[in-house]
């Protein structure tokens, strides 16, 4: 006899949304999570809260013209799905089907649903993943990255409230410190889970918790939903899955996710008969810097750059167009790993840093997270503020110097390698400055930066006025050493459009569903090869609604 109607594994955003939607529809739900209650909400709590919205009121107020057709064109240009996907054929058929539905969801229903639950957005829509490729290639044609007012925690708030309400009503039971170590199958169907009940732990949010086992139990259900996330904290697995055609990830990387994002449950699902697809598709960032006070192992944070910094490889050479800051994250990462480099550099000056640098994450944006308007207004002041200012003052990865030649010496001193030639760096900066001074220029990065300032938001808070990098009043010069920061899994458990997990032969594995990152945000790979940003939290919500509807 079933202990509950549905077991949901993982109390992050996708798990919370699935569980609360099911409870709202009258199903009895048990929500399991390995971590203590302090980590309720998982990775979403730490996020910047960005959502991919299409044709929104926020866009229209800024004069941005967007619609579902343009968004889908951008999506497909970035995804580069295998031929036949649009006809329901081939390895990307389910990812394509999910992508079409998601773009429609992002074109109205997503915002309306969240707005009805009290979620609001910062009015200045950001332009992430600009692409810089030809029409039909990767990138967002227009700004679509809507920052939630209150960042990631504010997206979680209505679902946490709904979980408490469902718990009081008796339709939702939440069990922390319950680690799923296996799926129970009966006559070929998933009918429950094997669980290690772990010792209580007061570990603060995001910190590693004990894995000491108190006892083992089995729980039975009519259906099981996997919402356990990806593999970002398991660096050995990340390196093993990285495609050989893109070189090799470095031995030392930073983590943008807590230690519990280890991918273990994906392996448990495969052992039960599930199909895991597109494991070599991942979304990691090349712009990572280490946290001075880490919460989890190898804790790093991503610099969110404007487009003005020069991006150099470990030898001091510019990355090729269009691999400019903020344009093509995965393209830049693959270029770096393809060279065998473990780091790269931003080269800029103090004024560009103050205008263009931001950091990702709720904890790095206390103004937006705390909904503090007075603190937010300090962003327009001519100086770095908050976490960016602290990194600039204390991080060993920030190298300051008065001249390009002195900067090259500082870069080499930091790495202990004599790889950046002072003459070459001086000439590179001089060539860039000559392009800017011309007022027009042929350098594609200089042209793209000037064009970006035609957008009101970029001109106001994101893109520095074009001036020579060696302008005395804008100095000193700055080089920032960037490391690989692991984040997201784009592949995952293969699902149909009802979120049902499939077997390797394409048949349904009865009783098993997957949502969020564990499902590649839908179909085992809704993004294909590349993402457009703002689609991860939104993908968690979209897959949760689909699974709940199928199970209602």
TrEMBL record:
<dbReference type="GO" id="GO:0033765">
    <property type="term" value="F:steroid dehydrogenase activity, acting on the CH-CH group of donors"/>
</dbReference>
<dbReference type="InterPro" id="IPR003953">
    <property type="entry name" value="FAD-dep_OxRdtase_2_FAD-bd"/>
</dbReference>
<feature type="domain" description="FAD-dependent oxidoreductase 2 FAD-binding">
    <location>
        <begin position="5"/>
        <end position="537"/>
    </location>
</feature>
<dbReference type="InterPro" id="IPR027477">
    <property type="entry name" value="Succ_DH/fumarate_Rdtase_cat_sf"/>
</dbReference>
<dbReference type="InterPro" id="IPR014614">
    <property type="entry name" value="KsdD_DH"/>
</dbReference>
<dbReference type="Pfam" id="PF00890">
    <property type="entry name" value="FAD_binding_2"/>
</dbReference>
<keyword id="KW-0285">Flavoprotein</keyword>
<keyword id="KW-0560">Oxidoreductase</keyword>
<dbReference type="InterPro" id="IPR036188">
    <property type="entry name" value="FAD/NAD-bd_sf"/>
</dbReference>
<protein>
    <recommendedName>
        <fullName>FAD-dependent oxidoreductase 2 FAD-binding domain-containing protein</fullName>
    </recommendedName>
</protein>
């Amino acid at each position: 006899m079933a202990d509950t109607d549905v077991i949901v594994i993982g109390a992050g955003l996708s798990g919370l949304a699935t569980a609360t939607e099911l409870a709202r529809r009258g199903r009895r739900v048990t929500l399991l999570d390995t971590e203590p209650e302090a980590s309720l909400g998982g990775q979403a709590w730490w996020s910047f809260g960005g959502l991919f919205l299409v044709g929104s009121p926020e866009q229209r107020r800024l004069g941005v013209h967007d619609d579902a057709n343009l968004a889908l064109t951008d999506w497909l240009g970035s995804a580069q799905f295998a031929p036949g996907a649009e006809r329901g054929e081939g390895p990307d058929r389910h990812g394509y089907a999910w992508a079409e539905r998601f773009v429609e969801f992002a074109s109205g229903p997503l915002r309306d649903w969240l707005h009805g639950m009290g979620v609001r957005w910062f009015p200045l829509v950001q332009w992430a993943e600009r692409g810089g490729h030809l029409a039909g290639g990767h990138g967002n044609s227009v700004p679509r990255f809507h920052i939630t007012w209150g960042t990631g925690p504010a997206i979680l708030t209505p679902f946490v409230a709904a979980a408490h309400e469902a718990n009081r009503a008796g339709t939702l039971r939440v069990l922390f410190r319950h680690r799923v170590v296996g799926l129970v199958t009966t006559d070929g169907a998933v009918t429950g889970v094997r669980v290690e009940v772990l010792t209580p732990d007061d570990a603060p949010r995001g910190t590693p918790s004990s894995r000491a086992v108190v006892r083992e139990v089995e729980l039975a259900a009519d259906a099981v939903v996997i919402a356990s996330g990806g593999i970002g904290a398991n660096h050995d697995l990340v390196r093993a899955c990285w495609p050989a055609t893109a070189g090799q990830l470095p031995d030392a990387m930073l983590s943008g996710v807590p230690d519990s994002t280890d991918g273990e449950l994906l392996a448990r699902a495969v052992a039960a008969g599930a199909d895991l697809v597109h494991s070599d598709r991942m979304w990691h960032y090349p712009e990572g810097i280490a946290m001075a006070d880490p919460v989890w192992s190898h804790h790093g944070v991503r610099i969110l750059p404007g487009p003005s910094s020069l991006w150099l490889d470990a030898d001091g050479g510019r990355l090729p167009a269009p691999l400019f800051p903020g344009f093509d994250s995965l393209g830049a990462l693959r270029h770096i790993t393809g060279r065998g480099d473990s780091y790269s550099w931003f080269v800029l000056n103090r004024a560009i840093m103050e205008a263009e640098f931001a950091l990702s994450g709720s904890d790095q944006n206390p103004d937006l997270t705390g909904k503090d308007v007075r603190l937010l207004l300090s962003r327009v002041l001519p100086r770095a503020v908050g976490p960016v200012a602290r990194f600039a003052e204390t991080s060993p990865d920030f190298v300051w110097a008065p001249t390009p030649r002195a900067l090259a010496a500082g870069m080499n001193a930091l790495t202990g390698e004599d790889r950046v030639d002072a003459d070459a760096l001086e000439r590179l900066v001089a060539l860039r400055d000559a392009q800017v001074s011309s007022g027009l220029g042929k350098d594609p990065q200089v042209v793209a930066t000037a064009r970006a300032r035609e957008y009101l938001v970029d001109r106001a808070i994101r893109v520095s006025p074009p001036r020579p990098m060696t302008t005395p009043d804008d100095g000193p010069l700055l080089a920032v050493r960037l490391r690989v920061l692991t984040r997201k899994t784009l592949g995952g458990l293969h699902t149909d459009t009802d979120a049902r997990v499939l077997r390797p032969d394409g048949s349904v594995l009865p009783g098993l569903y997957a949502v969020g990152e564990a499902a590649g945000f839908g179909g085992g790979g809704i993004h294909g090869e590349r993402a457009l940003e703002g689609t991860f939290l939104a993908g968690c919500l979209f897959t949760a609604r689909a699974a709940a509807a199928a199970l209602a």
